[in-house]
Specification:
alpha/beta; 5-stranded parallel β-sheet; Rossmann fold; 7 strands
Length: 149
Amino acid sequence: MDTGDTCEYVPFKDKHSDPEIKGVLERYKVICVVGASDISGKAAHDVPEYLISKGYNVIPVNPNHAEVFGLKAYKSIGEVRGNVDVVEIFRPSEEVYGIVSEAIKKHPKVIWMQEGIYNKDAVELAEKEGIFTVFNRCMFKEHVRLFGD
């Protein structure tokens, strides 16, 4: 799994209101980060590192690393033990459908596709399962914007 930044151009984002996004960030604290990177300066590293600093329980998923942020890294979402509130995705849009298909088995409350990431079929699949779906938004930027730093 390549953990490079996914900076595709997506000209739109979901239609969720600020109170909805703020509610997600207030309510859900266990975040499974698919594509978490151990390379400082990449969004897939810096965003989850920020979330850890704000008290979130980050679970890194990256088959190329045994550990990220000093935390055990899992090869896949399916290997993660326990409940997951949010699945945050740092992978190319074309990989998202498979990730969401696997994530559904963990019954997350939220699928969050990082800024620049969108897959229409994956959004429809998650929403059909009753999962709140966010796309083309950065968790770090939204947290800072809605709560300050």
